[in-house]
Amino acid sequence: MGLKQSALFILILSWLLAGCATQPAATAQAPEAAPVVAKASTTQASLPVAGEAASYNPVDLNVFAAASLTEPFSEIGKLFEAAHPGVSVMFNFAGSQQLAQQINEGAPADVFASANNKQMNVAIAAGSVVSGSQQVFTKNRLVVVVPKDNPAGIEKLADLAKPGLKLVFAAREVPVGQYSQDFLDKASADHAFGSTYQADVLANVVSYEDNVKAVLAKVALGEADGGIVYSSDISGGDAGKVGRLDIPDALNVIATYPIALVKGTRNPDLGQAFIDFVLSPQGQAVLAKYNFIPIAP
Length: 297
Known about the structure:
Layout: H1 3-54, E1 59-66, H2 70-83, E2 87-94, H3 96-104, E3 111-113, H4 117-125, E4 135-140, E5 142-147, E6 167-170, H5 175-188, H6 197-202, E7 205-209, H7 212-220, E8 226-230, E9 242-246, E10 255-261, H8 268-279, H9 281-289, E11 293-294
Parallel strand pairs: 1-2, 1-3, 6-7, 6-8
Antiparallel strand pairs: 3-10, 4-10, 4-11, 5-8, 5-9
Helix pairs in contact: 2-9, 3-4
């Protein structure tokens, strides 16, 4: 091999050896880079989790309640929302028979508050409420209402049987409508009224309404000479809109109001918390404020 060839061979051999020597150095750095990247990924992924845990998702609580509960439950709902930030209590007020039907047809209700046991039992029979889970939370009593100026001159209960009157009752399917019929049954059995009292009064009924608020509204507007509602319906702002005739205890009917969770509710804990709030001293005080009869001490 000549001198030039020997020099070229040495140069190529040196270049090859240098290239092999740098390869392990690059390989040695790779394991150190991977943990740094993994650690950064873990840190960034945990930030959204922490943020989500700190936030509160708003929740709607759907309460189906008898129309007679409109005023006290509206106030109770505000108090409950104040104690449970992020919760909105959404009320559906109507006749208990309408509410039971809606719930049985799959309406999205969490809590059902009925004005009688009959409609609660309708929901139980359909499997919408678990039997035995209902609780009585308040009671109510009947009262006769007349327009403020009382143009028909209704001064006593016997006057409801005078021919020519225009009376408005709730339909028999509505709790207060059935309670009104029960009152007439009792009165007709009392010699002070006579056996035809019920028939004479019913002959004066010109319309049967779907809920008690409709009865009150027609009397207050002077569209009827009288009607039968709950004593709770003429409390607060409605107290000055009509006159009233009290029904004595011997003839009156005490309405019983049960409340229960609706089976399949997506918010069972929150719904139970609302029920507990209604039964609490604070909730019972609100009901008493609107002339309901509290059941708690």
